[in-house]
Design brief:
The complex is a heterodimer of chains A (211) and B (460).
Chain A (H helix, E strand, L loop, with lengths): L2 H12 L3 H10 L1 H11 L3 H17 L10 H17 L12 H4 L13 H10 L2 H12 L4 H8 L3 H24 L13 H18 L2
Chain B lengths: L1 H16 L10 H43 L43 H6 L13 E5 L5 E3 L5 E3 L4 E4 L35 E2 L10 H8 L33 E2 L11 E15 L7 E13 L4 E17 L15 E22 L2 E22 L10 E5 L3 E16 L4 E12 L10 E13 L8
Antiparallel strand pairs in B: 1-4, 2-3, 5-6, 7-8, 7-15, 8-9, 9-10, 10-11, 11-12, 11-13, 13-14, 14-15
Classes of the chains: A mainly alpha (211), B alpha+beta (460).
Chain lengths: 211, 460
Amino acid sequence: MGEEELHQLIGGCIRQERGSQKMLYKAFYGFSMGICLRYANNREEAAEVMNQGFFKVFTRIETYDVSRPFKAWLGKIMMNVSIDYYRANLKMAYTEDLDKAENISDGELADRKLNYDDLLAMIQKLPTAYRTVFNLFAIEGYSHDEIGAMLNITSGTSKSNLHKARQKLKQMIFEANSSANNTNYNDGMGYSPIVAINKVDKQGVFIKKNI
Amino acid sequence: MKKEKDEELDNLFKKGMEDPVGEPAFRDSDWDAMEQLLDQRKRRAGIVYWLPFLGSAAALLLLFLGWMFFKPGIVKNTKPGQVTAIHHSKENNGTSGGSIQQTADSTKIKTLSPANYAKNPGISGRGQNSKSFLPLSAGGDRRGTTGNGTKITAKPGVETIAATSTTNKPSPDSISNRVVIANNNVSDKKDLAIKKDLSAADGKKDLSAADNEKDFSAIANPAKNSAPKQKDSASANNLATVAAVSPLKVKSTIQPKPGSRPRFAFGVLASSDLNGVNSSFQQSKIGGNFGLALTVGISKKWTISTGASYDIKPYLTDFGNYHTSYQFKTPPSSVSANCRMLEIPVVVNYQVYSQRGNKITIGSGLSSYFMLREDYTFNYSNPYATGPSGFSVVNQNRNILSIVNINATYEHPINSNLGLVIQPYLKIPLSDVGASQVRLQTTGVAVGFNWNLNSFSKPK
């Protein structure tokens, strides 16, 4: 999409023209959904979070500074909406054993070519707290201090969560390598706390939806 | 080495996630949901645009009702048979005090001694009405007392009508309480706004003439008030205009119409309380609250209080009282909670005792809880149990007007503006509170200060 066309669409959105809104939505759907999927548990939740993000975009489009890249502004909104959506569960603590993950050797990471869907599935398998910190640190590039401020946690918690996220991801990659044809990363691992936590997550979402 | 491997892992995911080929394809159903969201906002916006108008209308209605409710009692002298004037002559500055006169027409003046007046209570100069309104006294319980014990007590908000003063004419018994009534019907209690205790000829002087002058000089007309003829007599110059006079102390049949006005008080309160679940304080924990309160007096004894307070409510409860859809592999034995909430009470208070500024009121009302943060910690009896150790919820729950708030308040005055407040209270929920849906009840004592806002604007 050219710069000129983007500005026209933004102008239409400022005038609350539904056609312009839809075109902008379609143009940046993939980009926005890509961000939200990384923070969400699944596609449905990601779509809900993304729509909340676009809702903010359409209602606050006047505040967009045209001298700055629109994609960066949009991406930041999607990230913030995603964090807010799962904020209630970000401090959920877990009492699970990471011994298995600690035993993963570092050399096994690149044994198998992992595509987007594989990597996304692994990230979505992470508990919300770990996933959020991993996204912010490894993919968005924020420091632990910045993450601590954004999530209202200490930088120590951020580091700890990142470490645990990495261990879990390594564990999943190890599993993927050991059973290349099997994409079920839970087989034989017994992540009962994760399964349980997802239920709690959904409870939190349910409460939020009812407000 | 480990750091490099970590970075390698991070890069693996970073590159994989940024791969544009993997971006999800557009779904019409998502746009449909988006449109619903936008349409919903339009409907809400419509309501929002009306809110200022609705709010203004409500405010105007409240103002009108408030004015109707709190308007001071004004005496309109449009009917015959009303007190028309009370006047104290400036020139009556002798030791006996001054005189008070009522008249609408100096030609109708009649002068009576208290004894004479008692015999002629219905005396009046009918057919004349004064139209000038002047305040007698608006200060609380001010007393205007003429010499020789002629005492007049006026309540705040009383308005009387001044007319021309008349010449003094001492009565034969040397107590010249001059009573001048124009168009006065003493028996018409409804129209009279002055409660007067008239004590004539008791030989006491409650206030000096100067005091009387201060109270009544605003309505004096010294030009027409001739000099007293018997200055040497201590009681020669007392003129009193009354509605009913008795030789002894007489309580007038005239009933006051008190001038009410809204009373406001601003309070700052802090409290420490016990929080328990399910009618039990056995496992209670101590919490704390601090907040602000605004009290509006709607009558002498009834007040309405509201405000906002920040509550910290920790509590411990058995896991059986904790509600969750989450299926615990090993159920915790108990749950420790720490809730932060904003509380907005609406309480109606009734004053049951008031003596020398010390007041005791009892209040009852409803509170709303807006849960700001709920932190739950699960306590396992088995130290090796696996499962979530905690759960946090932020800004997700509220209980609107569903907590019964019962309190008693003792207020001790520190000065005319400030009062010390001690308030024991009990809060019982009508509905389950918070994400854990527990019956969280609270009892405690609040201590604080009340600032009487009306002291800034005492009536003149």
